[in-house]
């Protein structure tokens, strides 16, 4: 049996690839095995094997008879394919020879035909050239005919079509044709523009344009009111006809551009009718504000800035009521008021670009110019709806030399302002000291003035056109905050001997206020946008760690974090000094209380009424006075931190220096409990509902065994348990 089992385990060979004796033995083992009763199945097995043998023999005979036929068929197919291939090769050779012979015979014809084709193509080019000339001449004749019949609208439309053809021909290399088309467009454009401009100006004159007086004095022009409809109809007709000349005007007129250093945004040319309407105002501007005119004074930029604002305001109603409907009817997307403002602002930009180089090194004049320009921009955007995508004065101020000078002057005047505010007699006094609701932060005047200064600086640079320029101003603000912090630190050190004094507390309030405001600003959309811009700049720099980049990207930090952290550190240092000072006064006042004879005090039953220990009075009076003093001098948030820090130190002091350092009888424990619960804790009850929560060492007696208080008293054991037991005894008594 063991041998048989071993044999079974060793049967792992592939039966399809073993020798016959082995296969037979394996077959018998598999079919019969050790079950001798299965020998009865031998007959059926023999029949089954015989049937399998017969099928295999038939398959072998079939295969042996079919294989030669298949091979013979494959060979025949191969022979046929070979013959077909040879035949195709012979045909290909004949065809190739025939083609070569044909090409040889046709070569002279091809040369002659090529010459003819080249001639035809040249003729076609000439014909196309002549067609273009004919087309332009035809359009030119049409314009002439229209003008002869006084059909100006059709003439303008035809000229517009000719200008479009000019644009289509710009990619052509036919320079003479381009010159011919351009000269033709120029010729008719001048004639039409002169005629329409003259008529348009005449209509404007009838309307008493331009309106140099205030809006309420404008008559919108008509000496004879009965003729008003005709004049306005003429205005609309001429305006639309001039609009049709816009394409040709843009082709022929190169707009005046300021140098690239000003980085003005691209903007389309001013539409032709608005240009004509602006002509008298441009002449007035150049007359008054260029050359040696008494109105052209470098120290008075407000003169021309105010004049432009007045012109915009004086004409806005007419543009909205009369011109905008014409543009809408003509299908134009132009806003008449904005187009008018944009053209006048370009006069300002040219004037600034010319004047600023003469002002750069005069701080007073330059600062005055910047102030006036910023005021002009504010009114332009807020009152007249000017768009930030248009060229503005901020592009001129953003030019490198001008911008650096602006930063320098801004810093200089800010530092002067800081010197002034800190040296003022009212520097450390809150201007809202008499108004309780407003004076919750108890902000000294210097801190509020400084933050107002920062806010004004933000307002001055927030409309700069590029983020990089804004970030430079943000850097200036951070520098000013750090400088102000250093100044506060210097004053604080001078006042450190009187850390509870009014000025020291005012400095602390100032530090807290600045840190609080900066934290609020960090959530402002404007500064969040600057943070994103700073992130993009830092990502391109290798000086910033991946951790810092991640913090910036996740908005975990802010642009003012570094400044806020420094201010918070200064605040904590100053608070710690105050707490230490008051705590020292309290411990000095508690010397007699520490030496109280706790072991020999009468019990509660022996006293008619419990009263405060006389030795505790100096300590508690000192605490009361200092808490009241600092509550009046510190803002609420600072005072809250102060009294909590002080309570923690007093708690530890009483626990370690009085409770743990003395021995108590029952009367002493009750007296200490009375002093604490009826006198110390109420001092802090003005600032929280459960002051005992801030004196956990003193109040928490659950760690001691109340039942041991008698033993503690009699054995003069450590009094921590005695005090807790006495408190619990009083509570249950």
From TrEMBL:
Keywords: Coiled coil. PROSITE patterns: RINT1_TIP20 (PS51386). It comes from the Eukaryota. The keyword Coiled coil applies. InterPro entries: EXOC6PINT-1/Sec15/Tip20_C_dom2, RINT1_Tip20. The keyword Ribosomal protein does not apply. One of its GO terms (biological process) is endoplasmic reticulum to Golgi vesicle-mediated transport. GO terms for cellular component: Dsl1/NZR complex. Residues 39-95 form a coiled coil. Pfam families: RINT1_TIP1. Belongs to the RINT1 family. This is RAD50-interacting protein 1. It comes from Anser cygnoides (Swan goose). The lineage of its organism: Eukaryota, Metazoa, Chordata, Craniata, Vertebrata.
């Amino acid at each position: 049996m063991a041998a048989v089992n071993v044999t079974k385990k060793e049967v792992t060979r592939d039966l399809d690839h073993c020798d016959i004796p082995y296969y037979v033995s394996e077959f018998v083992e598999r079919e019969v095995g050790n079950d001798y009763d299965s020998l009865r199945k031998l007959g059926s097995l023999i029949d089954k094997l015989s049937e399998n043998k017969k099928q295999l023999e038939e398959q072998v005979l079939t295969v042996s008879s079919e294989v030669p036929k298949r091979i013979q068929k494959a060979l025949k197919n191969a022979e046929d394919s070979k013959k077909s291939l040879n035949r195709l090769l012979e045909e290909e050779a004949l065809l190739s020879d025939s083609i070569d012979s044909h090409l040889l015979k046709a070569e002279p014809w091809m040369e002659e035909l090529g010459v003819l084709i080249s001639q035809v193509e040249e003729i076609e080019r000439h014909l196309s050239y002549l067609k273009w000339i004919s087309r332009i001449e035809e359009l030119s004749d049409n314009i002439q005919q229209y003008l002869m019949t006084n059909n100006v609208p059709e003439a303008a439309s035809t000229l517009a079509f000719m200008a479009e053809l000019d644009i289509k021909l710009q990619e052509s290399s036919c320079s003479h044709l381009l010159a011919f088309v351009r000269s033709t467009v120029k010729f008719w454009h001048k004639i039409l523009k002169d005629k329409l401009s003259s008529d348009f100006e005449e209509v404007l004159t009838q309307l008493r344009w331009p309106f140099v007086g205030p809006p309420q004095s404008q008559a919108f022009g008509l000496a004879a009111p009965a003729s008003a409809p005709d004049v306005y109809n003429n205005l609309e007709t001429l305006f639309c006809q001039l609009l049709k000349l816009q394409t040709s005007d843009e082709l022929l007129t190169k707009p005046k551009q300021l140098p690239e250093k000003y980085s003005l945004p691209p903007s389309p040319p001013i539409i032709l009718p608005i240009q004509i309407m602006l002509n008298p105002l441009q002449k007035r501007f150049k007359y008054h504000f260029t050359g040696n005119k008494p109105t052209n004074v470098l120290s008075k930029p407000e003169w021309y800035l105010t004049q432009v604002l007045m012109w915009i305001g004086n004409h806005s109603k007419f543009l909205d009521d009369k011109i905008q409907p014409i543009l809408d009817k003509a299908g134009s997307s132009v806003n008449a008021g904005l187009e008018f403002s944009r053209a006048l602002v370009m006069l300002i930009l040219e004037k600034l670009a010319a004047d600023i180089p003469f002002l750069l090194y005069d701080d007073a004049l330059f600062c005055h110019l910047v102030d006036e320009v910023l005021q002009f921009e504010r009114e332009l955007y807020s009152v007249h709806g000017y768009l930030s995508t248009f060229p503005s004065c901020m592009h001129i101020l953003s030019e490198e030399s001008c911008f650096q000078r602006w930063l320098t002057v801004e810093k200089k005047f800010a530092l002067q302002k800081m010197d002034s505010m800190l040296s003022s007699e009212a520097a450390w006094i809150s201007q809202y000291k008499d108004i309780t609701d407003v004076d919750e932060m108890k902000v000294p005047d210097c801190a509020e003035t400084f933050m107002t200064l920062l806010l004004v600086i933000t307002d001055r640079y927030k409309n700069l056109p590029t983020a990089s320029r804004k970030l430079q101003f943000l850097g200036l603000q951070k520098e000013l905050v750090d400088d102000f912090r250093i100044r506060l630190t210097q004053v604080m050190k001078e006042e450190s001997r009187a850390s509870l004094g009014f000025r020291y507390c005012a400095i602390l309030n100032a530090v807290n206020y600045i840190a609080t405001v900066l934290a609020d600003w960090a959530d402002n959309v404007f500064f969040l946008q600057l943070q994103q811009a700073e992130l993009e700049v830092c990502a391109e720099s290798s000086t910033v760690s991946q951790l810092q980049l991640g913090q910036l990207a996740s908005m975990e930090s802010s642009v003012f974090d570094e400044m806020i952290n420094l201010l918070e550190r200064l605040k904590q240092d100053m608070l710690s000094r105050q707490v230490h000072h008051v705590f020292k006064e309290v411990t000095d006042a508690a010397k007699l209380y520490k030496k109280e004879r706790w072991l020999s005090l009468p019990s509660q039953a022996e006293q008619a009424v419990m009263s405060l220990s006389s030795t505790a009075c100096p300590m508690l009076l000192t605490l009361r006075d200092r808490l009241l003093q600092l509550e009046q001098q510190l803002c609420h948030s600072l005072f809250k931190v102060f009294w909590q820090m002080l309570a923690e130190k007093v708690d530890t002091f009483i626990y370690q220096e009085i409770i743990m350092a003395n021995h108590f009888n029952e009367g002493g424990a009750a007296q200490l409990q009375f002093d604490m619960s009826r006198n110390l804790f109420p001092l802090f009850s003005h600032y929280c509902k459960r002051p005992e929560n801030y004196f956990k060492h003193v109040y928490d007696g659950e760690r001691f065994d109340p039942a041991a208080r008698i033993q503690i008293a009699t054995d003069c054991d450590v009094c921590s348990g005695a005090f807790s037991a006495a408190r619990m005894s009083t509570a249950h008594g």
